[in-house]
Amino acid sequence: MEMNGVTKVWSVDNDVENQPSCAQIVDAARFLREGAVVAFPTETVYGLGANALSNEAVEKIFTAKGRPSDNPLIVHIGAWDQLSTVASEVPEKGKKLMEAFWPGPLTVILPKTDQVASLVTAGLDSVGVRMPDHPIALALIKEAGVPIAAPSANRSGRPSPTTAAHVLADLDGRVAGVVDGGATGVGVESTVIDVTQDPPMILRPGGITREQMEPVIGYVELDPSFQVGAAEAPRSPGMKYTHYAPEGEMWLVSGECEKVRGKMEDMLQQAKQHGQKTGVLATEETAPFWQSHASVDVVLVVGSQSDLEGVAQQLYAVLREFDDQEVQYIVGETFPRNGLGMAVMNRLEKAAGGRVLSV
Fold first, then answer.
1. Has residue 149 been placed in a domain?
2. Which of 192, 211, 226 finishes a domain?
3. Alpha-carbon gap, residue 303 to 309, rounded angstroms
4. Binding residue positions
């Protein structure tokens, strides 16, 4: 199926689980079966899907995103009976996690089968699998009849999309279609955990936290490759390259509140003196101070320090808003690394390209 530079949009209500023969879902699933690339909503962000069993189809994902092919993709399944198609075995701790958190924002690294397209795994002998907790995603995958490889539906390096409009801003004319199911919920991508080793290791923090998993399977390690610039080959999406970045230069400042504010003021004043349009990534608690500051052109509120779920939901939309307002220099505050804060900080540090100052 050729795109001819035209991206089709299907608008679907979230009650598709009550309409298994929804015409839009049937049509989008046909595109996927025929080897096209289709974006669709999950509970985390919009994914860019292709048949995970076809290298030819998966290659179109990398082309559309401009994504390096040494970065593995996550395979999405719509039913438990699809798991054996992509995973050759499931360790006991993996089964416990799936029973506890699927459908949901948890990707489990498992030994792969030979049916999985080699481009999906970037040459690794393992594959990341998850079952999304979104009625449109589940209906689409079930109707397609094949597991779907799907990274986030954005140009590589850009903030991940949480609405169909974000997808179209990046990929209109580059993909065959977009299933528009409204805004996503969690806002940051799934947690990725490798259960092929013991103890299991989190390779990417996300919507399911370490604190939630440890009561289910015991001690869980954290991969040191969360840091930008780690040299080893990535075993999970999001472990390599700068991700989620706005077009402007972005810095994060951490430390004691008054010192952070003073450092941010100095940085913003210097940027303003150099003629740059400045912005602050603020919380509800700090926004009033910055909104009246002479050195700040744009203040965007990402949520409250006391509501990390809300911060995660708004994060990518706020990063994209800085681009919409053509902000050239952005300074943001940091968040505690417990619970969902680990995922929020992981995305912020990658968005800033590792530019983090401690004061």
1. yes
2. 226
3. 9
4. 44, 67, 71, 76, 130, 150, 152, 160, 190, 204, 244
The answer on 198 and 79 residing in a single domain is yes
Answer yes or no: is 157 within a domain: yes
Asked whether residue 2 is domain-assigned, the answer is: no
The pLDDT tens digits of the residues spanning 64-111 come to: 999 777 889 999 999 999 999 999 999 999 999 999 999 999 999 999
Same domain, residue pair 222 and 254: no
* CA dist., res. 352 & res. 357, Å (int): 11
CATH code of residue 204: 3.90.870.10
66 within a domain of the structure (yes/no): yes
Cα 57–Cα 60–Cα 64 angle in degrees, nearest 5: 155
Contact between 325 and 317 under an 8 Å Cβ cutoff? The reply is no
Q: Which of 111, 43, 100, 50 is nearest to 75 (CA)?
A: 50
Distance CA 191, CA 203 (A): 8
- pLDDT at residue 212, as a whole number: 97
| The total number of structural domains that make up the chain | 2
Binding-site annotation, residues for ATP: 67, 71, 152, 160, 204, 244
Task: Identify the CA nearest to 315 among candidates 329, 328, 332, 298.
Answer: 332
For residue 281, give the CATH number of its domain.
Answer: 3.40.50.11030
Report the 3 state secondary structure along 112-173.
ECCCCCHHHHCCCCEEEEECCCCHHHHHHHHHHCCCEECCECCCCCCCCCCCHHHHHHHHCC
Domain holding 88, by residue range, is 8-226
Q: What is residue 258's predicted lDDT score, i.e. its pLDDT? A: 93
Pair 62, 207 in one domain: yes
- Please, what's the b/e burial string for 279-300 (b: 16 or more CB within 10 A of its CB; e: otherwise)? bbbbbeebeeebeebebbbbbb
Contact 112, 126 (CB under 8 A): yes
Considering the entire predicted model, what is its pTM?
Answer: 0.89
Question: Which residues are annotated as part of the binding site for L-threonine?
Answer: 44, 76, 130, 150, 190
